[in-house]
Design goal:
The chain is of the alpha/beta class. The chain has three domains: 151 residues, NAD(P)-binding Rossmann-like Domain (Rossmann fold, 3-Layer(aba) Sandwich); 163 residues, Dihydrodipicolinate Reductase, domain 2, CATH 3.30.360; 84 residues, ACT domain (Alpha-Beta Plaits, 2-Layer Sandwich). Helix content is 35%, strand content 25%. The chain is built from 14 helices and 18 strands. Strands 7, 8, 9, 10, 11, 12, 13, 14, 15, 16, 17 and 18 form a twelve-stranded mixed sheet that branches. The mean pLDDT is 95.
Length: 435
């Protein structure tokens, strides 16, 4: 059978890893396929920077159109990232009848509906395993391994940069800025880490997973997002005294009418399986009504782990092309997306338990005043730590609550923060100990 020609748009870190796999692991891949894979063309605006793998200069171009318009190329890999011109290139590739492999979670979370619709109309595939969880087979698990399950809930650690920072703060007692600087020095964090530390990258991934799990339309703008940049070392230390660790989590669950989808730091019990996921590793925990609990764990980023996921999509596509079995599985696993009849649950309706840290003046009536306001808003206290050490002219009072409604919590804290005895905005961290 004739070879399958591939074009790559975006020859950066992950792109270099993909090239490395396609060239150096060619014999291994061919043992698993009936047809050879040939990397026919690579497009990137920067062709001069050194790469970890060398290629024949004749296959290089600075013009992505050279790949899109090449009638011999069947699969296009998009690894340039960002929204534009990636969106335009992918839509042009689809219109030209090309199959697409991408790792671009931001693009799919933002413009996925348009892209998946175009692919369906053209009868081509778009695969995106590397968009969530690096080398962890999260997408394939939902699409092909759990179709007979209603996903009751799932939650996970989906950003290696944030997890590395929180691990350093917890294990070594360093503050956020110091942990971030080390993450940048080791290459785990970009020079501008905003997407990672503000939870945006995790929200992109959660939007994709919600659509796969529940057949819901991609609604990135309705996901509650909160990052880790405001977390203080003091709160991580207090959490440890209560028996918890702090992780940035993507959380989702569903009932008959609503889907919960939120990203924020959370306290996990020290003995929870995700509490031991440290460094730049990712993990995600699914619960299906037939299978029960499933945990997926592995490298969530990095050149070769992510490139491995891209390569798995290329091989999967090659098999489908060879067998004439294209679009055997819908792009988002469901026959129709957006027919679920559910809506994303407003954050105000969320019910969970909470950690509070109040910075107050050292007065006898402080604790009773705060407790009274919480009680008025139906928030009951399960544990208190009150210490005499001063922090910026105030003493901390730390509380853990029983389950409470987010709307009631926000109203109570708004009232408490206006008290003369309160010296700084109350710190709130949600607690996830239900699953």
């Amino acid at each position: 059978m004739k070879p399958i020609n591939i074009g790559l748009i975006g020859w950066g870190t992950v792109g270099s890893g993909v090239v490395k796999i396609l060239l150096e692991d060619q014999a291994l891949i061919q043992k698993k396929l009936e047809r050879r894979l040939i990397l026919k063309r690579i497009a990137d605006l920067d062709l001069e920077s050194p790469r970890p793998i060398q290629v024949d200069s004749s296959i290089l171009t600075t013009n992505a159109e050279d790949i899109i318009k090449d009638p011999e190329i069947e699969i296009i890999i998009e690894l340039m990232g960002g929204l534009e011109p990636a969106r335009t290139f992918i839509l042009k590739a689809i219109a030209a009848g090309k199959h697409v492999v991408t790792a671009n979670k931001a693009l799919l979370a933002t413009h996925g509906q348009e892209i998946f619709k175009a692919a369906k109309e053209q009868g081509v595939e778009i695969l995106f395993e590397a968009s969530v969880g690096g080398c962890i087979p999260v997408i394939r698990t939902l699409k092909e391994d759990l179709p007979a399950n209603h996903i009751n809930h799932f939650f996970g650690i989906l950003n290696g940069t944030a997890n590395f920072i929180l691990t350093k703060m917890s294990a070594e007692g360093v503050d956020f800025d110091q942990a971030l600087a080390e993450a940048q020095a080791k290459g785990f964090a970009e020079a501008d880490p905003t997407f990672d530390v503000d939870g945006i990258d995790t929200a992109h991934k959660l939007a994709i997973l919600v659509s796969l799990a529940y057949g819901h339309e991609l609604e990135l703008d309705k996901i509650y997002v909160e990052g880790i940049s405001q977390l203080a070392l003091l709160d991580i230390q207090f959490a440890a005294e209560f028996g918890y660790v702090v992780k940035l989590l993507a959380i989702s669950s569903s009932n008959e009418s609503q889907i919960e989808a939120r990203v924020h730091p959370a306290l996990l019990p020290r003995d929870h399986v995700l509490a031991g996921v440290n460094g730049s590793f990712n993990a995600i925990f699914f619960n299906g009504h037939n299978v029960g609990d499933i945990l997926l764990y592995g490298q969530g980023s990095g050149m070769m782990p992510t490139a491995s996921a891209v390569a798995s999509d290329i091989i999967d596509l090659a098999r489908s092309i060879s067998k004439g079995a294209l679009r055997r599985v819908p792009s988002l696993a469901w026959r129709e997306i957006g027919q679920d009849g559910m809506e994303l649950k407003p954050m105000e309706e969320t019910i969970t338990t909470y950690y509070f840290r109040f910075s107050v003046l050292d007065r006898p009536s402080v604790l009773s005043k705060i407790s009274g306001i919480l009680g008025e808003h139906k928030i009951s206290i399960s544990a208190v730590i009150q210490k005499g050490r001063e922090v910026k002219g105030a003493v901390p009072i730390v509380m853990m609550t029983h389950e409470a409604k987010e709307a009631n919590v926000q109203k109570a804290l708004s009232e408490i923060n206006q008290l003369d005895m309160v010296r700084d905005k109350t710190v709130l961290i949600r607690v996830e100990d239900r699953f």
